Amino acid sequence: MAEIKKISGLTAKSSPTGDDFVVIEDSTGVNYKVKASNLNVSHNHSELLATVSIDSSKWDNSTKSQSVAVPGAYAANSGIVMVTPATRTDADNWCDYGLFLDDSEPVVNTVRVTCTSIPSSSITVFVYRIG
Question: What is the DSSP letter of 8?
């Protein structure tokens, strides 16, 4: 397999056009001309959707779950939802009470959290969309 030897031909631009290109020369001397518009542009892979409180008084005692409104969660083509405790105390409580993001039946604009035992205090979390 040939290795890339040299990349040349594109000057630094914030927005390359379809006419801009790079030349990739491999170790066998073969040159490949690649349009800059075909190159992958780096972008942010995550977005903070909300900071929410999992309120200690709003747990459903029978299901040991709680649903919280989060605009953008589970919308069509929205990517993966991830929840992270906001502070160390929140993280300790998240673990101590066995909390987890319950996405077994996702509902648009809603995050459902389930626990093994109901927390005695509220837990603040960040809700992200990944992808």
Answer: E
Q: How far is CA 16 from the centre of its chain?
A: 27
CB neighbour class for 126 (10 Å; exposed up to 12, middle 13-18, buried from 19): middle
d(CA 121, CA 124): 10
Q: Is the pTM for the entire model greater than 0.70?
A: no
Q: Contact 26/5 with Cβ under 8 angstroms?
A: yes
Q: How remote is the C-alpha of 129 from its chain's centroid?
A: 4
Phi, psi angles (nearest 5°) of residue 65: -135, 165
The per-residue pLDDT string of the chain (131 residues; one tens digit each, 9 = 90 and over) reads: 455 455 555 555 555 565 666 666 667 777 666 665 555 555 556 789 999 999 999 999 999 999 999 998 988 766 788 999 999 999 999 999 999 999 888 899 999 999 999 999 999 999 998 87
DSSP string for 37-103: GGSPPP---EEEEEEEEE-TT--BTTTTEEEEE-TTTT-TT--EEEEEESSHHHHHHHHHTT-EE--
